[in-house]
Write the structure tokens for this entry.
Amino acid sequence: MTTMSVRRRAGTPGTLRRDRRDWKGWAFIAPFALVFLAMTVVPIVYAIYLSLFRDQLVGGNSFVGLQNYLDVLSDAKFWSGMWRVAIFLVIQVPIMLILSLIAALALDSLRLYAVGFYRIMLFLPYAVPGVVAALIWGFMYGTQFGLAANINDFLGSQVLQPLTLRWILVSIGNIVVWEFMGYNMLIFYSALKVIPAELYEAAEIDGAGSWRTIFSIKIPGIRGAIVIATMFSVIGSFQLFNEPQLLQGLAPNAVSTYFTPNMYAYNLSFAGQQFNYAAAVAIVMGVITAVIAYVVQVRGTRQENR
Amino acid sequence: MASESTGAAFTRRGFLGLGAAAAATTMLAACSGGSGGSAASDDDIEKAMKKGGSITWWTWTPQAKKQLAAFEKAYPKVKVKLRNVGSGGTQYTKLSNAIKAGSGAPDVAQIEYFALPQFVLAKSLVELSDFGFGSLKKLYANGTWDSVNVNGGLYGLPQDYGPMAYFYNKTVYDKYGISVPTTWDEFVAAAKKLHAANPKLYLLNDAGDPGFTTSMIWQAGGRPFKVDGTTVTVDLQDSGTKKWTSTWDQLVEGKLLNQTTAWTDAWYAQLGNGEIASVVTGSWMPGILETSVAQASGQWRVAPIPTYDGTPANAANGGSSHAVLKQGKNQTLAAGFLKWLCANTTSTRIFREQGGFPSTKSDLSASAWLSDAPAYFGGQKINKVLADASDSVLSGWQYLPYQQYANSVYSDAMSASYSNNTSLNPGLQAWQKAIVSYGNKQGFKVTGK
């Protein structure tokens, strides 16, 4: 590369040289660019294109401009789903991340026997496909024959009603914590492993205890990992779909067709044939998620740099 | 979801109503009337069948394989590719997508009666009177023929039928001294009695099911959906609907209904252990009880469903037709296959013998079938009861041209009523609002009363 450009620099006018080098660079990223174009850019552009039309059962297809977007913005169902995932995010994400952090710190404390065993056990739920996880939990939540039924029988009252309107969000949160705690734990744990040992030695010499070490060295040391995990969790919450969609089959009265924005988009297109409107919902969702993830990132990084 | 589960149920039963009394050849001869014009005659169909070709058929009926084997024996040159792409809603989604994509749809497809108008409206189906199928009317039970005629055109042939019937667990009834109710008032009283005697037991399960609700409104004389082309009137406050809700509110508000979601494992288990003592549903239910609730063999019986005044009145719940898709290349051949499938006596007999509930008069009155006394039902001649049930189905019911969508959002509207044990009426009002708003967005002229 170097020799080639040197040679060219000697013989060719500047502009031409630059053009040719640019072209070569594109060739190198072409495999990525093609896949990126086909799998990411084209679907998004197509979704935007779709969202500008309205295809009716009676009257056929027509261009409606931004009407679908205006409808989404004033759609109570869309906002109720959005509001639900926002509540979910604000409560479930901190609980999950704190549990993950505690688990990672415990594994890193060197006070546990069989660290490898605990690590793999905590991580294992993540290896279970989300669909299977939701089915397993759906079965356990059953108040007729599931685990919930056994507990209720034991207590002699119907105290556990996980699949009812009132408790369903908690039940889903529980599944998501179970699924993703191990994953986040692993992110934290690997970040803890790369904190330089000198810091611990220095802290020990200064007489810092375990708590002091945790709050002054370990947690600040993995701040970057925490920001990343938070971002993933925020995006995951907004995309909540598998768990409510599967539980809906068991409890249609507790999970509506617009329970989360993603479920709403799915049901609009597959039950209602409203592909255009669903595309608009998906795009509005995507934009909101991107903005929130960006804010989390900027805030997190700023604190890190402070 | 509820509607999908219902669809799954239909799968197991699979009713084709076919069977005409006449032998295939007789029938072909008899139907030469046709509706003129450029229509294909019976001769054309027979020629196409003799010439042969290849068509695709989507269905989820368990009887399909055996019927197809018989068909291929009769017409060895016609190759039919049988595909089960899912039942009910799953299949309709795939079908709609294939139609929208412009390729990939089958030549012949199973479509439940309630879903037929939606496909007619999308101009996806072939009008069958062009093939002279109008004259097949006399073969089918009342009600099924109405269901395949949409907006004045014939768009399918009836396969099976789902007149409602009352299935009950006699062991539980005997143990608690419950007699089979003949009116809904008696039913409510019996529900109270059973649940009071043993709080774990319920006379009926209902967690809100659109197919069941519409059938119950139908039986009560309600006609909430009036469809004339693309003009639709929705009135879920009409007197028949009110008649049903005033009975059902007593059960919902009195917490007398088991609310396990139907068609789930837990539901089947409770049908088996007696915690749910009755089921009010289509006549296709016996096959499902026998296979999915095998442990209760000998306990269940069948009766006509209760009515409001004691005189027989019934509605249908479920049932399917088969239709020819416009996308198909060889529509004459597809129509020939459809006619054999739904009107040939060999085909309808196989369907009936394999546990389907027939829609054809000749099969409904076949003595071998009527005298069938399965051990599962304690030797009761259940088909006699079910055939009688098909006679009293009230006429004039219409489904929405987008019933599948309406059913998919039913639970959204009704969940509060069922979850909080409160009156169903606010839920039905919310459902009506959703139905009206969707219809107008889709270009219909929908008015809600």
